[in-house]
Structure formats: C-alpha cells, structure tokens
C-alpha cells in the first residue's frame, strides 16, 4: 500500500479500469485460470478515457471479446455478461433501458463514469422491473473516473464536450449565468473525480476574480460536503491508507488561461510539442497522411492515393518517452542512431544463420556449436524485441519526417527563435515587419501568432501608425484580423500589465547554421535548419506555482485565495502542450498537470478569432 | 475509488415497485416478478454454443486438476529406488501421458468443431466475432494447460535420458583392471548422485593386470598388500590422469546437455512460428490465386475489346453508337473493379492489430 501513494495517476486510473472490467473485483493474474468472457459497452466519454490507457490486446487479456459503442446497433448475444461504462446522461440511460427491455445480454454490470442521480437510478430500476430483468443487473457502480489521463502525470478534463468548457465558451461576452454554472459544474465534477481517484484532499489556491476562483469555491464546497459525511466519504478507505496520514497534502493551483495568452501561441521546438502543433495529434494518437509518391499516371488512370496512417504514441514506446521533450534535431539524430543499432542487431542474426548453415552437416563439430547454440537461442528470443524496435523506428521516422517537412516549409525554426527573443526581451535582429512580409516564411496563421505574441508581451502598445502598418502587412499576407481585435480588448481589460510581460530570461543560442548533411541513408536532411538549443524557461504559470509551493512572498500570488476543504469552515487553465518538458522544474516535488481543454495553437487562434468577431 | 451502489439500486427497485403498486400500474407479472423472470428466461434458447463451450472448458479444467494432482508423484525422480515413497511406476506414468494426450487431442478437436459450426450458423457479425474470440480464449486455456503437461513430461524425459546414460556405463566384465572394478563399485552406489563415469573402455589400460590393491577412496584392496613404490606412484599418476579426464568429459557432457535443452527449446519456438506462418501462407496463396484469376479475366476482356476494334467515330458514342462506349465502360470497370478481398497484407478491417487502441474509426465500422 505504500506504493499506492507513489503510483502515478495513470496507473491508478488503469488499475481502477481493470478492476471494473474484472466485474468490480480486484484483478489477479492466474496462469491456469479458466477463461471468462464479457462484452464492453461504452459511450464516447468512456472511449476517450479507456483508449489512452488500455490497448485492444490488453482488453482481450481481460477477457473482453467485443467492445461496442452504446449508441450503435447491437445484436443480442446470449449468455454473455456485459460491462457498461457510460456517463449518466438522459440518452444513455434511455438506451440502457432499451437494452434491458430487448434482453441483449445475460447479465449487466453498470458502471457510471461520474455519479448517477437517484432519479435516474430509479428510471433504470423501472425499466428493469418492466423487463423482468432485475436479477440480471448484477452490479451498479459509480466509478468517479471522469477525466482523461494522457501521460503519467498529465490529465485533461474534457474531450467530447470541450466546446462547452473551452476558452471561448468561458470568455465570450454573451455568456449567461446559467451557462457559466453548467461549465463550472462540469469542470468541478471532473476535478472531483480526479481527487477521488488520487485519494487525497488538496489544498486549493487560486487567484481572485477569475473563473478559476469560481471553480475553486465550488470544488471546495463539494469536497467539504463529501468529507462531512464520514461514513460515506470517498476519501476514507483502505486504498487511501497511505495518503490519508501522510503529512503532505497536494496543493491544487487553479489558474485561468487569461494570465498567459502568449504561451499557447508560441511556436515550439521540442518533439512532442511539435507533433501536437503541426500534425493532427489527439489523445495520444497522431494521424498522418502519406502521399504515396508521384506516379506518372497516364491519362485517365486512377488518382494518387494518399494513405492515411495513424500511430499511437504510448508510454510503452521507449523512444517516445525518452525523446518527447528533446529539441527536434536531437530527435532526428536519435532516430538515426536507433536505426543503425537495429541494423547491427539484424546483421548479427543473419550472420548466425550463415554460420549455422555451414556447421549443420558437420557432425563432429559439436564443440564449435557451443557458442552458437546459445547465441541462436538468444537471437531467437530477442526477435520479438527486434521487431518491436523496427516498428517503433518506422513509426518515428514517419512522424519525424512529416514534422520536418512542416518545419522546412514554414520555417518554424525562425519563428521559434524570434518569439523566444520577443518573450525574453532581447534585442531583435530582424524587424517584425520583415518577417511578416516575407512570403516564404510560414502560413498566415504563423504570422498572426508571431504578431500576437509581440503585441501581448509588449510593454506599451505600439503606436497607431505602427499598428496600422502591421495590420496592413498582416492582411497582405492573408491573415484574418479578428484575433487581434480580441487581444486588444483583452489587454485593455486585463490591467495585468506587469505579469504577462515577464517571461523570464530565456536565451536561445543558435549553434550556427546547421548545415549538416547526414550520412547516406538518412532521411533527415536538415540543411538550412537552425539547430537551436533550448534553455530553461520561466513561464508565468511556472513562476506562480513556484511561489505558491515554496510559500514565497510575491505580489503576484499574495493575493491568492486559500481553501482547505478539510478545515471546518475554499486547472482551469487550458494548458497547451507546446511547453517545454515540465518535469525538470522542481527537485523532489511531484507535479501533475491538468487542463480543462487541450488545444494547439491553430485551435486557439480559431477561438480567439471567434471571440474577436463578436 | 469506485462506489458500489448496487444496494442503492435494489432499494430503488423496491421503491419503484411500491410506487407502481400504489399507482396501480401493472408491472410485468406483478408481485411474482422473480418467477416471471424465470419463465421469461427458460424458453430463451440457452445457446448451444455457450453450453458446449463451457463443457469444453470444464473438461480442460478437469485435465488441469488431474495433472496438478499427480504432478508431484510424476516428477518424483527416485521412485525406482525409494519405492516406498514414490507411488508411480513407469507404466503409470506412461498411462498418464497417453491419457493426457488423447484428452488434449479430443479437446482441440472439440474446439475446431465448435469453430466450424459457429461459422456455419447464420448470425450477426457481432455474435460471430464474439464466438471466435471466445474460442480463442478456450484454445489459449488449453495451451496453458498443455504447457503444464509438457513441462512435467520434459522433466521426465530428461531423467530417463540421464538414467540411460548412466546405465550405458556398465563396465564390461572381467577383462578389466582394478580401475574398472572400482568404477564399477562407484556406479553401484545409486545414492551417490554419481557423475557419469564415461566408458572405461576408453582407457585401454596400460595398467598391468596385477592383482594389486586399489588405493582409491572407496576401494578395498583385494590383492596382495605389497606394492612396490614405483607401482604406487604409477597408480597415483594414473589416478590423477583418470580423474582429470573424467572431469573434463563430465564438463563436456554437461555442456552438451545444456545445448540439447536449448536446441529443443528452439525447436519448439520454430515449430510454433512455422505453424503460424502456415496460416498466413495459406491466405497469401488464396490471394495469389484470386489475383491470377482476375488477371486472366482482365486479359480476356482486353482481347475481346481489341478484336472489336476502336470505336468508329466520336459522335457515334453520343448518339447512336451506344455499344462501343458501353463496351469501353465495361472493360474499364473490369480492369478497375475486382480487387483482392482485403488489403494486400491479408488483413481485413475487423482484424485488429494488437498495437491498436480503440479509436473513432474503429467504432464507425460497427
């Protein structure tokens, strides 16, 4: 149980899911156990939660023969228990009642992602009675798993309904009170589920006067209510043993996106951030379109087919784990290295083959076989490993190539460097106007991002004349100016002139123009792409966190409210993924990151643009 | 941490029941809800498939229990010596082996039968898939239980081989020297986990066949008590040499044992792989045959078209000459139409790669 305290949120959620799939009984591996089979039914929320954590093979290992969407056509399968994992919404409940009436399965294990209300439970009871299926409903559980864990210590609150809780939804001027309440409730529900799964009651801190404060107030209330009822409290129980009595309770810092709008727009240089920014990367799955080369097609022949490939980037992928925070050139190099070592191993195995072939006929050569038999055994047993390695290398080669193409086409390295300089207030060698008017560098969206960062981090707004000049240049480049409208409003409204401008001292040293042409066989020809080195960044959110955790006094955070639900008597931040690896921040402190919505710069610009239109 | 609200649910059921009674709403069968459920359920076809599947599973379970029960006795190595402890003779072991094998064969046949039957019956896609996965699970279970069996059998075979080797080292009678007699004595001590004394025939004994007493640790001198110093020395040297040689031979034999074990393991692995590949090769074969057919048909169509000659004139295609253009259409569709079933690597859409995760694209297919 001591290990439970140290288990990452990912492990905890996976264990909870596995227990649920095992008919709500802790799962124990037994090599000579009889097979049990079952069917898994989920809705889209359940699907989003399960898919980053369990692969299809793992589901099979747990005995799941079929996994189906709740709202799909499902045929009756006799003599099979069905495990449901759905949100307790009206339509889901209706469909479940319909299933009961149609007698689709033999027994039903109902699991609700977040707590179901009494009245809806009665609806199900009603349907079960009408269908004479009450004994078939074997177990009903509230799982409190309403959040999506993407990595060992990062989670997202919403995916299916992220429109509801998006930056735009919260910040639009025409939002009504009831709508705001709904948004807050959704967020609080997810956060609550998170803490139940984590098994700890946090201390909550947030800044005043923001949406974060509203969330904090509600969350505090909810936690308090739950703790008050000591018998039914979710925070007492054997799984929580270690956490309950430890001296350290987690600190929850709720931060509103508005304190830092520049970071989501920032161009990135690390592998994972680039993949998220540039490719279609969603819930740990990246979708690539590969054009299958140019075929000289004679008149009237078939069109060029583009293969769509999608890859899952999971924690099992060792290369990904190691390099997702590395700067891109390093990644390219590492892929090369991996490929070479793989080839060496492959050659080794092939060589053995020839040796064995030679020795096969010579009966008296038993002594010569000594080494080779052992080698052969080890080679054969290492084959699956080798194949896996090859698959990963292929995967990353494709992904990295796609990213590289974007970098070269849009000159993202230039943008990155420039933005770093803007954000850290070092002198700029090229004027902003030049870059914007440069037709080769980047899409209109890139230019807009650059300009917005400049605008946001400028101490004083540029003069009217300058602004007009910029606007013209932007429009010439094809940009839509709506986001700028919104940012202007935001800046005027924010009055936090000091905070966003200090992005800390960041310097990026370009290691000269990287004109490395890698050796033959390499696909990564990075000529003309600068090899930029990343330095530690000190972003606003990091600073705030630092202050709060160390209890440092700082005008920024002194005004933060303090809630402790345990006392008897208080990430709404949409954190973009294009941020440097966060683990290096603190020694000895474990930081979990969460956000209500995960978007990349393109999506953010879209939201800003919509806001600017109103 | 999940919360069990089953009791809450049952309470809700009661609440709803009483409420409905109060409102006078008929609830399928009224108070005897449970009896009604039984009635409801019995006419429902219990499903041949699942009952038979469960039968197979219980059989395999019985096999597993049987094997586990007798495992200890089976493995017990020295039962031929310590007969009061071991309760198994070799014949019994053979019997077990045979029984187990026939059992396994019948089980796997039963699984095959179930499989073919499941495919023949007309059912929805989902049910079919469910059944094939269930059969996969059962096969896997059978494999695991068979592993139990093969493990203990491997141990037994190894022991038998060991014993055979030991027994091969029976020394030849009488024409031997002291050394051979002493080694004979050595092999007659079964309690000694005796190291193989390789055939002493390998020692064409230059030792004079004198009836000199043995200076070995276990031998009693049978001959005279006099030994000339040179002879003693010679014997000693001989001893040393023999011991050295035997040790090295012993090492070699151990090595060979190890290698043989590894080879057998490799053998297993290879067999598995070959069997796996067999299925794939079969499917590739099918595809190739299909492709050849398609190409043949395509060629014929092309030939037909070319004999028909080119279309007469452009306007014929639009006004009266419907035939040639439709013929072209027909040919083109024949060329483009038939695709080999499934993608070239032999997988169809419903077969999931183990590395896949659930994704929206999968579910849209169902």
Basic shape of chain B: flat
Estimate percent helicity of chain B.
55-70%
- The H-level CATH homologous superfamily of the domain at 156-259 and 554-595 in chain A, spelled out, is Sec1/Munc18 (SM) protein, domain 2
Strand order in the largest sheet of chain A: 2-1-3-4-5
> Biggest interface and which pair forms it?
A-B, 83 and 71 residues
Mean pLDDT of chain A: 75
Work out the helix count of chain A. Answer: 24
Radius of gyration of chain B: 39 Å
Kindly identify the CATH topology of the domain at 156-259 and 554-595 in chain A: Rossmann fold
By secondary-structure content and strand pairing, the structural class of chain B works out as: mainly alpha
**How many runs of DSSP E, i.e. beta strands of chain B?**
1
Largest sheet of chain B: none
State the CATH class of the domain at 156-259 and 554-595 in chain A. Alpha Beta
The separation of the N and C termini of chain B measures: 32 Å
Summarize the structure.
The complex is a heterodimer of chains A (614) and B (366). Chain A is an alpha/beta fold and 614 residues long.
Topology:
The complex is a heterodimer of chains A (614) and B (366).
Chain A: H1 2-6, H2 9-21, E1 38-42, H3 44-50, H4 56-61, E2 64-69, E3 81-86, H5 90-102, E4 107-112, H6 118-130, E5 137-142, E6 148-151, E7 154-156, H7 167-171, H8 177-198, E8 203-206, H9 211-228, H10 241-245, E9 251-254, H11 262-265, H12 271-278, E10 280-282, E11 285-291, E12 306-312, H13 318-323, H14 328-359, H15 366-410, H16 412-424, H17 432-437, H18 444-457, H19 464-476, H20 482-494, H21 498-501, H22 540-549, H23 555-558, E13 561-563, E14 593-595, H24 601-613
Parallel strand pairs in A: 1-2, 1-3, 3-4, 4-5, 7-14, 8-9
Antiparallel strand pairs in A: 6-7, 8-13, 10-11, 11-12
Chain B: E1 3-4, H1 6-23, H2 33-41, H3 48-75, H4 90-120, H5 125-168, H6 178-187, H7 229-308, H8 314-318, H9 322-336, H10 360-365
